[in-house]
Amino acid sequence: MDPVSLVVAAVVAGATAGLKEQAQSAVRDAYLGLKNLIVQRHEVEVGAVERLPDSEVQQESLREVLAAVGVGEDVEVLRAAHEVVRAVREHDAAAARAVGVDLNDVDAELIRIVDVKVRGDATGVNLDHVRTRGGIVIEGIQVDGGGSPAHP
After folding, report:
1. Are 91 and 26 in contact (CB under 8 A)?
2. What is the pLDDT of residues 40-56, one digit of tens each?
3. Counting CB atoms within 10 angstroms of each CB, which of 44, 53, 68, 89 has the fewest?
4. On the CB side of 39, how many CA atoms lie within 13 Å of its CA?
């Protein structure tokens, strides 16, 4: 997952889990920390995604704005995004999305992922801290929302 997409995914997860009344304080605190960094350092509002966290249109709009302001190069924002994802996974399993392929901390010559099919509120492929010398090929990812918004 590229850095900007990671930040968007963390905003979505944080908005979904962290803003619920019964959210664990760890999730809420992590999300509010990320949100404050984005707003204060990059002057980007995330309210539209908070209101409609499952909207692909709002997610793509946020992704575009965050990329334009260089949030993918902001180490502190990326660290905060990782913290939101970790907190959601640990404290709100229902809000953490299923992932078809999840690669974390991989160093490889070439990575090829083909024909992944997931259903429901899921992510087809999630890559985090992946390094390759020959590249990454991802083909044939199918996400069937099954009535729920899906995230390829």
Report:
1. yes
2. 999 999 999 999 888 88
3. 68
4. 10
